[in-house]
Amino acid sequence: MSTQTGPVSERRRGRELRDVEAALRWTLGGAALARTSPGASVERAAAWLLAAVSEVATLPPPGFVLDFGTLLAGGHIAPGAGKPADPALARALEAYERQVLGRLAADRHLLRAADAFANLPALLAPVGVAVTMATVLSRLGWSAGLAIPAGVARRLGDRSLGHGLGLTIDVAMLRDDAASVTELTRGYDALVLAASRSRSLLTEADVFTLEHLPVLSSLGQRVALADVLEAADALVDGVPRRFGRRRRDAGHAATAIPDESRYPVGGLSSIGNHGTFENLVTSELAYLEDGPEIDLFDVRYAQDELLYYTRDEATLVRPHRHCTFVFEGELEGARRRDPGLRWQRVVMLLASLHVVVAAMLRALGDEDVRIVLSFPPRGEALGEELRLCGILFRDEVERGVVSLERLDAAAVEARAMGESSRGIVQIVRCAGEASAEVRGPIERQAFVVGARTLEGWQELVTTLLRALV
Fold first, then answer.
1. 394-439: per-residue pLDDT in tens?
2. H helices then E strands: how many in the chain?
């Protein structure tokens, strides 16, 4: 197949199949090579392929698009899928089924990704397939795509697909089309090679994107979010999982009147094997027997098998902790990338906060923790970062443990002084100059955003977590 005058041309942005009929044969014949079950309907296959055309500049083999979508939709690999007549394509498909589809089906993230995909609105399902597939291909470094003419995409999107236009998904379309068979073989071989070089196919970022796709309105937001989550994964590898709790001269504060009327006090929340005798489950007394001999009650007591009611005291008798991360306006200058680091400084900052917040909530589960992300009040300063944090911490915001605001420094200080009478108050200045730790009513820390390697960011996150926890 000529690369200059034939139907496929080689360009800097990838290969392009110019002939509309040849592109239709490649697309519909290639879709018939899907190796998963249950097979996608014509309408669903057309929707997935059209979304893939809109999301990526060059398409992978169409069968991979359908296989990827079917696995997300809860399908499985079909071991009895037919083989094409061409021996090279059959060999490529066998390797693809074993080294790409097999790894995808066994990926530990697939179950959660499938749950997130099932919760998407019907109109967003094709977008979910295309976005996740494009992210995976980009992560694999796959670059053997084939661009098809816009006219083919329009015909795929026509509701009369398979009816009025007479288009069908059939492997017979490849019977006398050696060029399409060659391109499909090349595409599957490239997928196998790219997958063999990658440690994992799906990541937490893919699952998070699917879970929050309804609020990710633009490609830019999806790319930025994926960058933050990938950077967070890289940071976690160098941050200790557990941190020792610091001893502080702080006790339980008096309950504020608004809290008394807001939270229930007392009541029974569960049953456990530890407690005091006044909370003993009354049915346990049936094991008591008269006489000096050891009875079953004594045995159950010695083995910690007696059952006790656990009382729910809400957050009133738990230590209060209020932590504010203050984003300074100079962070707008951090939208640049340092040599040797894949991500911008501001992306590393958001990734660091994602790791820090998750670690704090995990380590301080017995405290009433409130975390605030405070942005500059003027205009649209750090507006993109604020919107991205709204998506990144969406679950925590809904649970009421994280909140976002635009507030000036004076208001943050005034609120901190008011909170200091109720518990531990911490302020972390992001992008500020380095400052020594201050002990007192308000603990102050500085998270300096500067030129660092990945190891430097990991050390910075570790130091901050040790100071906060």
1. 889 988 899 999 988 889 988 988 888 888 899 999 976 655 555 5
2. 18, 12
Q: 147 by DSSP, 3-state: which?
A: strand
First-to-last C-alpha distance (Å) of the chain: 64
Q: Token pair of 140, please?
A: 């694999």
Q: Are 124 and 116 in contact (CB under 8 A)?
A: no
Q: Where are the domains of the chain?
A: 8-215, 235-246+318-468, 266-311
The helix (run of H) or strand (run of E) holding residue 405 is: strand 402-406
Going by their DSSP bridges, the two strands 308-311 and 268-272 should be labelled as antiparallel
pLDDT (average), residues 92-108: 92
Q: What is the pLDDT of residues 282-323, one digit of tens each?
A: 899 999 988 888 889 988 888 888 998 876 555 556 788 899
| Under 8 Å between Cβ of 382 and 329 | yes
Residue 381's nearest CA partner among 338, 326, 435 is: 326
Question: Can you give the pTM of this predicted structure?
Answer: 0.65
Taking alpha carbons only, the member of 314, 309, 317, 312 closest to residue 277 is 309
